[in-house]
Amino acid sequence: MMNKYKKILSGLVMGLIGSTTIVSAEEIALDGSTTVGPIAKAFAEYYMAKSPDVNVTVSESGSGNGAKSLMNGVCDIASMSRFMKSSEFKAAAEKGIMPVAHAVAMDGLPVLVHPSNPVSDLTVEQVRKIYMGEINNWSQVGGPDREIVVVSRDTNSGTYETFYGLIMTHEVDGKKVKEKIMNGAEYVGSNGAVRQRVQNTLSAIGYAGLGFVDRSVKALNINGVYPDRGTVASGKYPIARPLYFFTDGYPKLGSHVYSFVTIHLTEEGQEIVEDIGFVPVTQY
Amino acid sequence: MRLETRKLLDKSFSGLGLFAILIMSGALLVILAPIFKRGAEALFFEGTVEHRRMLLDKFERGNRAVLEEEIARVKAVRQPIYDILDRFEDEQTHKLNEIIRACEDLGNSEGSFGKRIKRRLNRLERAETFYDRLKIVRDISLRAEKYNGPVADLKHKAKVITELVSQLETQKEPFFQLKEILHELLGPAPGEDLPVLIRKQYGQSRWDRAQVKLHLFFNVETWDYSDPSKMGQLSYTPRVEQFRGTVLEELFPYVEQNQKELLEPRWTFYWGFLTDKSMDAHMFGGIMPEVLGTVYLTLGAIIFSVPIGIIAAIYLTEYTRGGYMVSFLRSCISTLAGVPSIVFGLFGLAFFINTVQVSSSKSVLAGSLTLALLVLPTIIRASEEAIKAVPQTYKSAALSLGAGKWHTVLTVVLPSALPGILTGIVISMGRAAGETAPIIFTAAVSVMGALYNPIEALSHPTYALSWNIFNLSTEHEAVDEIRHVQFGMVMVLVMIVLLLNLTAIIVRARISKKLQT
Predict the structure, then answer these.
(1) pLDDT tens, position by position, A191-207
(2) Residue A248 falls within a domain, yes or no?
(3) How many domains does chain B have?
(4) Are both B315 and B434 inside the same structural domain?
(5) Any idea what DSSP says for residue B279?
(6) Residues in chain A within 8 Å Cβ distance of B280
(7) Residue ranges making up the domain that contains B191
(8) Does B473 touch chain A (CB under 8 A)?
(9) Cβ of B195 and A193 within 8 Å?
(10) pLDDT for position A105
(11) What pLDDT band is residue B228 in, cutting at 50, 70 and 90?
(12) What average pLDDT does range A72-92 have in this prediction?
């Protein structure tokens, strides 16, 4: 009886070993932003299809974690949707790591509402007041009488930092004032979760990366400008930012990491960036 | 209490119990039924010719000769669509040429006005695309509208031109949208460059998704915001309205009549869902790497936790004599069982990866060790209970026959406690397979390349069902396109856990039977 089990078990193990081929591949590990995630994943699959002897792994745990991973030396490339903070630079330099930024794409931060919401224009001022809690009903901005459900990204994300820097920070009498996001705001952990929350909640407002906008949500005009490829690339849309890959020093020319962080400069790379819904940094 | 009252109470109590069981099984049904129904859709669905084309291209599966015949057939049905699009573009160009001729007419008028128009007309030669030329013409007509010279009907002519130009312009955006939807539905048009992204290389591979796209093809979603005090109302207007009076009108009835012939949907059992790797972030392909990763992590967790767990249980039950230290240890173990799993995940990152550095980055080893810590308390408690349940007489008999303590534990206590211990182990396996939080920072990634054999996998990160389900549902950029994959993954995970529990029951029954004889 036991013999039979042993046979089955050893068969299983042999099967597992046999089903996978032994490859000793060079590895590139990416960690970081969930916004850059779709680009990183598509680049990874594209790169592995082109050079099968390289294994690219992509994790999405947020820009802040990406920076930490780069500092701790557990990833080769940190994908980030914001620039590194001075504190992160300092911590990295102390560990002997010199972060170098490669801007791979441009991204706008569309402000999203449910498609049934009649409001389609807001100013930066109005968005700030909504997130501060000063405007708490859609009727105050020309919509129906409904309380606004404010959805924000978690504070570890680069998307939050960008939004905070561009919307919540403003100048009053020549001084920079950082406003606080209202207490009742919902914080969610990813771009997809923001979209999901907005598409299921009639009176919600949220913000996410350009690549995450589809028919199920409505992007608003901000200061009269609709977020699309043209307005983001030209800087007309007020909430825009580049997306980065950070490496430790500039990668050795000709290395796989070098080829990987320059994919976005090739024609194929630009096509991928555009097809996923982001804006290429170069014009072709 | 009278007998009748007692009986009544008894009955009502068993009725309540029955009711509770009914509710529980109802809840189970409500949860499991949709998972299995929608999960099965990942395996059984009406696959279109695009699905078969993808299988042949990417996985070299299917009969090439038959498929080529099929593709040729479909191509023949699709060709008229592209012909109509071409004719529409020709028609547009023709209209533009007429407008340009009218502009040239304006340019022939006397004086500096005519010269200015002519200079603008010269720019047409350098304009590359249709829309560039349209823009130049619009500039001309707008300029001409401001004309206040002697020629009588020039202003009127200019207005007519502007009218014609704006007609062409209003069709620009709808035409792009139409082409976009056709691309989503049927894949790249003939003669178009092959896109780099795999999801753009094919049309809809599933008939249910294709029907969604077809609906969008025939209808335009419009929101009625006429009353700003209410939420807007969704309404669909036929897309054909946008192209009234153009050749594109013919396109819609043609597609309507040939819906099925365009994609040739056929019931498919896609077993590759369980054995293929994913293509282009799960747009196509299967979930084999995820299943394999889950198996590695679970087995790893069990290999690390079981020996330690059983030894700890033996020590706690057989070798200690009670006392503060032991009850302190026991409460520590209970506390460990109550620690949230994300804490284990962060501990795993801080301890196994950053401090001990069992691997250079995330790895199956680090993930298994973290999961092992998570399930350790369960295994210890289950083993302890099982060992305690072994009758004292067994031990006494062994000891009286001259066996040492260690010998007794090994040959008498452990075998009779085995069913209980095994149950504990298998339940822990179910837990380890389903946990997400401990592996987020220690093992799981959303994309990686090669699959590894168990030994190599230890030092590499891995996919895992639980994490990838979470990743797909919250972070995938096109999650609505691939709901079936998500449900398929959930179904497989639930089945793995159910299978493990079933194994536990069977093994337990077998061993108990063997022990009795």
Answers:
(1) 889 999 999 999 999 99
(2) yes
(3) 2
(4) yes
(5) E
(6) 42, 45
(7) 52-202
(8) yes
(9) no
(10) 94
(11) confident
(12) 92
Q: What average pLDDT is seen over chain B? A: 89
Q: Can you give the pLDDT at residue B145?
A: 79
pLDDT classification of A21: cutoffs 50, 70, 90: very low
| Residue in A with minimal Cα distance to B227 | A118
Both B481 and B376 in one domain: the answer is yes
* Residue from the list B196, B230, B453 with its beta carbon closest to the beta carbon of A46: B196
Within the 19-48 window of chain A, which residues sit less than 8 Å (CB to CB) from chain B?
19-23, 25, 27, 29, 31, 34, 37-38, 40-42, 44-46, 48
Q: How many domains does chain A have?
A: 2
Distance CA A278, CA A281 (A): 9
Residue B402 and residue B507 share a domain: yes
Instruction: Say which CATH number the domain at B386 has.
Output: 1.10.3720.10
Residue A14 has pLDDT above 70, yes or no: no
Is it the case that residue B214 has pLDDT exceeding 50? yes
Query: Do the domain assignments include residue B484?
Result: yes
CA-nearest of A284, A261, A276 to A107 is: A276
**Residue A21 backbone dihedrals phi, psi, to 5 degrees:** -90, 145
User: Is A211 in Cβ contact with B229 (below 8 Å)?
Assistant: no
Q: Residue A12 domain-assigned?
A: no
Instruction: Kindly state whether residues A158 and A257 are assigned to the same domain.
Output: no
Q: Are residues A127 and A204 in the same domain?
A: yes
Query: Which residues 6+ apart lie within 8 Å of B161 measured at CB?
Result: B99, B102, B103, B106, B137, B140, B141, B144
The average pLDDT across B255-278 equals 92
Tens digit of pLDDT for each residue in B128-143?
888 888 888 888 888 8
Residues B289 and B198 in one domain: no
Residues A80 and A57 sit within 8 Å (Cβ to Cβ): no
Give the end of a domain, one of B146, B172, B202. B202
The span from the CA of B369 to the CA of B297, in Å, is 9
DSSP per residue over B70-97, as a string?
A: HHHHHHHHHHHHHHHHHHHHHHHHHHHH
Domain with A233 in it: what CATH number? 3.40.190.10
Residues B408-429 have a mean pLDDT of 91
Q: Which of residues 355-384 of B touch A (CB under 8 A)?
A: 360-362
Which residues of B fall within a CB distance of 8 Å from A196?
Answer: 473-474, 479
Structure-token pair, residue B83 = 């012909």
